[in-house]
Amino acid sequence: MALTPIRRVVTGNDERGRSKVIWDGPSPGTHETNFEGRGHTDFWVWRETPPPLDGTADAGTWDDEFPGPVGGGHLRVVHWLAKTGESPPNEPYKAPESHGRTWDRGGGNHYNRSYMHKTKSVDYGIMISGERVMELDDCKLTLKPGDIVIDVGAWHLWDSSKTGCMMAFDMFDAEFVDGPAGTAQGKDKPMRPPADLKLPPGVKPQRRIVAIDREAGKSSLVGDTASPDVRTDPARPGFALQRMWVVDGFPAKIVYETLHLPNVLEPRANGSVLNVVTFPPDAAWKGKVGAAEVAAWFKSVGSPDASTYSVQAPHPYMQKTRTLDFCIVLEGEIVLVLDTQEVPVKAGEIIVQRGTNHAWSNRSSKPAVVAIASHGAK
């Protein structure tokens, strides 16, 4: 079997500056290994930071490397297999070996189990399907669809033996101030959800796993909790934005926590933010929202100028930011509203949004959940 095709929608602008779809279809950046059904699919590659928003080339087809181009990064989905009779044996563990910006200690087989490895990067890992075990030096964690890992340059191993899986990775350069050790810097206290946190009806707590090397050569779990920072919109009952991570410079810092930083919708010009957003059915608020309610929402998340509201707009929550956004639909169905088109998308599909005017419209009867990684762009 070939790699499972994954739909990718890439946006851009027409000659009048109106947002539209540039590409829509199975992502062409597929790379299968010598094991049938095992490999990865590239969705977007960038070679400089901030990444550009213009250009006519499909950056999802560019030559890539692991853990991503120096000075940039990539979004890819890895396809791993379940353990079968054809699975090769695991290689023995060994002393760390350097491969430039990656290091490995063996222990895997590249079929259903990766090597214990470390990369000079910060990774947003987003489970799409199946089940996967993340092994750190101090624990093992079972991941289900929708779970998110923030791997802050830590040693780790992936095991998909039970069912196989697909998992998205937004990976970008990190700063190791102590050479290849890449250990945690600073003393920022990891945040935990408040005991009295109440989510809106229909909103599930978003799991956030953070891993780092507290000491050289040994990975540690920093936290495995629900998002500690949830933003709601009073005008939209059932809406929630759950913050995951913030990067305030490039290369990214190896730190314990970042949610004390102010960025919500928009990162700094050379930074990044990762959010998981639950969109309730539009029917819950349609006809009750106007300019004042929309302005209040964007102001509450520190981005008053992101709103492109007008009474003629196709959706009241239209917005435009100078960001490259990777949007992964985790649950449900939702419509990407652009200036010239409406694009229905569903769970498992990925949108690459290149600084275009847009909104999200949920016309179903159930909540839709979208993970959105935004990178400051130019």
What do you see in this structure?
The chain is built from one helix and 25 strands. It is globular and about 65 Å long. By secondary structure, the chain is mainly beta. The strands form five sheets. Strands 2-1-23-20-25-19-18-17 form an eight-stranded mixed sheet, with no helix packed on it. It has an eight-stranded mixed sheet with strand order 3-4-5-14-9-12-15-16, with no helix packed on it. It has a three-stranded antiparallel sheet with strand order 6-7-8, with no helix packed on it. A hairpin with a 3-residue loop joins strand 21 and strand 22. The protein has one domain. The longest helix has 10 residues.
Morphology call: globular
Q: Estimate what percentage of residues fall within beta strands.
A: 35-45%
Terminal residue distance? 40 Å
How does the helix and strand content classify structurally? mainly beta
Low-confidence segments, given as residue ranges, are none
Which percent range fits the helix content?
A: under 10%
* Most strands sheet: 8 strands, mixed
Rg over CA atoms, rounded to whole Å, is 20 Å
Average pLDDT, rounded to a whole number, is: 97
What is the number of independent domains?
Answer: 1
Trace the largest sheet across and list its strands: 2-1-23-20-25-19-18-17
How many extended strands?
25
Helix count equals 1
